TrEMBL record:
Keywords: Acetylation, Cytoplasm, Exosome, Nucleus, RNA-binding, rRNA processing. Its main location: cytoplasm. The lineage of its organism: Eukaryota, Metazoa, Chordata, Craniata, Vertebrata. Residues 12-96, 99-163 form the Exoribonuclease phosphorolytic domain. Component of the RNA exosome core complex (Exo-9), composed of EXOSC1, EXOSC2, EXOSC3, EXOSC4, EXOSC5, EXOSC6, EXOSC7, EXOSC8 and EXOSC9; within the complex interacts with EXOSC2, EXOSC7 and EXOSC9. The catalytically inactive RNA exosome core complex (Exo-9) associates with the catalytic subunit EXOSC10/RRP6. Exo-9 may associate with DIS3 to form the nucleolar exosome complex, or DIS3L to form the cytoplasmic exosome complex. This is Exosome complex component RRP41. It comes from Crocuta crocuta.
């Protein structure tokens, strides 16, 4: 069901609503961030764009899919962690998707492409890339870079992020299959 105004309801597909929040104690800086700050709004928009590319919204017209993400501890790669956790939640809720959405961050630090950047590596100020991938098709759901990077290094950083996202897919797929097996046993199927 649509929360709020019915005018927002889409007649041909579901509306995907994503909200991101971060606990005040999630980072070392203890900065109070109200629920509508720029970072939260931007992250919510990125998550919505990512999941609109993966969820089969046309199967649920005139409805709304809400994804709420709250970060309790942030040590880099926040977007990727949110995407991977939300993917598991969407799958567990039984919402049909084209594919898993797997994400990873990458950067270029000391002339080396690194995947899954920590807070210290992010704070170093080098170029960073966030990648959300639909691994089965190889489609990119979201790609964002927050600093300049020479084009000679872009492919190297992009490949590091894509390889890590495919590794995340392997792990998530194994966990989901194990969960389904255990649920089938409990239900006696």
């Amino acid at each position: 069901q649509i929360r709020g105004s019915r005018a927002r309801a889409l007649p041909d597909r579901a509306l995907v609503n994503c909200q991101y929040s971060s606990a005040t104690f999630s980072t070392g800086e203890r900065k109070r961030r109200p629920h509508g700050d720029r970072k939260s709004c931007e992250m919510g928009l990125q998550l919505r764009q990512t999941f609109e590319a993966a969820i089969l919204t046309q199967l649920h017209p005139r409805s709304q899919i809400d994804i709420y993400v709250q970060v309790l501890q942030a040590d880099g790669g926040t977007y990727a962690a949110c995407v991977n956790a939300a993917t598991l939640a969407v799958l567990d809720a039984g919402i049909p998707m084209r594919d898993f959405v797997c994400a990873c961050s990458a950067g270029f630090v000391d002339s080396t492409a690194l995947a899954d950047l920590s807070h210290v590596e992010e704070a170093a100020g080098g170029p960073q890339l966030a990648l959300a991938l639909l691994p089965a098709s190889g489609q990119i759901a979201l790609l964002e870079m927050d600093a300049r990077l020479h084009e000679d290094h872009l492919e190297q950083v992009l490949e590091a992020a894509a390889r890590a996202a495919r590794d995340v897919h392997t792990l998530l797929d194994r966990v989901v299959r194990q969960h389904v097996r255990e649920a089938s046993i409990l239900l006696g199927d």
